[in-house]
Design goal:
single chain, Arc Repressor Mutant, subunit A, mainly alpha, 2 domains
Amino acid sequence: MTVAETTMDVPQAAGSAAPRAVLLSPEDRRLMSECLQGHREAWDAFVDRFLGLFAFVVDRTAAQRGIMISSADHDDLVADILLEILHHDAAVLRGFEGRSSLATYLAVVARRVTVRGLARLGAKAPGHRVGTTHEPADGDGGQTRLADREQVAALLGQLEETEATLVRLHHLEARSYGEISRLTGIPMGSIGPMLARARQKMKLHADA
């Protein structure tokens, strides 16, 4: 069974519990399927779609830890995220179970890779302010992934519904203002200021 098939709706017997909401959009399902089949164009589209998300996660994670990183270090961390996704025949994508949106799942993966990378940078340059980080023991992996996912949800949970939607679309799904305007009906001129307010709220919560 492919990753795409695991996220499809499953018919339920009469009287059984309602099926879990399918969070993988048709667009993401197609993109993942083509990536896992090794289509070069699909990987290019994947990078175009999520590169902004990975850059955002690197910036936010470094800022949360009070770490100054150079442009070269930033680019290296983003490259590390992409390599992690490609590692072992794209095991990260093959392991996606559809329990969150693809963007949220990738954000959690990106954050964990970034935390490891920042710890490595801190070891090379002890003068930098680096928070305490460590790789979990095998038995703690599930709890750590859950904590990461909950942190992402908690930050978005501090926002109004419209603000959270804009953050998901722009920062997690890397959609342009034009796409967001078409999807939400919000005028393009209003999207930037609304995103700025949302980012400020998220920063205040993250720093608390």
